[in-house]
Amino acid sequence: MRKLETKTIVVASHNQGKIREIQDLIGPLGFTAKSAAELNFIEPKETGTTFEENATIKALASAQASGMPALSDDSGLVVDALGGDPGVYTADWAETSNGTRDFNMAMEKVEKALEKAGATKPEQRTARFVSVLCLAWPDGHTELFRGEVEGTVAWPPRGMQGFGYDPVFQPEGYDVTFGEMSAEEKHGWNIGKPQALSHRARAFKLFVETCLEA
């Protein structure tokens, strides 16, 4: 376990929604952060078969390119009735023929796959969002933090908040989707929650406890 000694880091991502969420999480702790996108770093190929492997690839690439510690996130939607898909290929399901990402299309793919699997009842549509954060240093040292939140796949999509698959993910114990929640509600800030709600906030909580707290 290595403590983070600096308040200047790189957010190792080109995904604007993810960058915004990570910056929202680290900002109150006094961090100064630029993203890999802002620094014009080339996106590394995500060749891993696990969230941990892909998070490590991204964090190490930004840490070594910048000479500073870098924090990455690899996350995805894991649907039980689909054998864990889209999982680590969550973003790939949104890829279009022209190289852009269309998450409305991706959500429809998930729904069609669930219908094909005969998963029409809520108890057949169980899923979880997984987030793995990797903090990497330029010397190659890494620390990994995994957060998960259970829920179900809702249809049709609801809400315009968040990004990605948020409008179809309804967390356990709630009657709204992540797409219908404010950032404060989604992450569990300032609403009396005993712990963070979102998968990314739960992983971030572990990061804070491990690398920042004395």
Average pLDDT taken over every residue: 92
Order of helices and strands: EHEHEHEEEHH
Count of β-strands? 6
User: Rough shape?
Assistant: globular
Q: Could you estimate the helical fraction of the residues in percent?
A: 25-40%
Give the neighbour order of strands across the main sheet: 2-1-3-4-5-6
| Content of β-strand | 15-25%
Low-confidence stretches are: 190-194
Largest sheet: 6 strands, mixed
Distance between the termini: 12 Å
Any idea what the radius of gyration is? Answer: 17 Å
Give a written overview of the molecule.
The chain has 214 residues and is α/β, with parallel strands linked by helices. It is 28% helix and 21% strand. It has 5 helices and 6 strands. The chain has helices spanning 16-26, 51-66, 103-116, 183-187, 199-212; strands at 8-11, 32-35, 70-79, 126-136, 142-153, 169-171. A 6-stranded mixed sheet has the order 2-1-3-4-5-6. The longest helix has 16 residues, at 51-66. The protein is globular. The chain starts with 7 loop residues before the first strand and ends with a helix.
Give a short overview.
InterPro entries: dITP/XTP_pyrophosphatase, ITPase-like_fam, RdgB/HAM1. 28% of the residues lie in helices and 21% in strands.
Layout of secondary structure:
Blueprint lengths: L7 E4 L4 H11 L5 E4 L15 H16 L3 E10 L23 H14 L9 E11 L5 E12 L15 E3 L11 H5 L11 H14 L2
Parallel strand pairs: 1-2, 1-3
Antiparallel strand pairs: 3-4, 4-5, 5-6
Identify the notable features of this structure and list them briefly.
single chain, about 210 residues, alpha/beta, 6-stranded mixed beta sheet, nucleotide-binding, dITP/XTP_pyrophosphatase, nucleotide metabolism, ITP diphosphatase activity
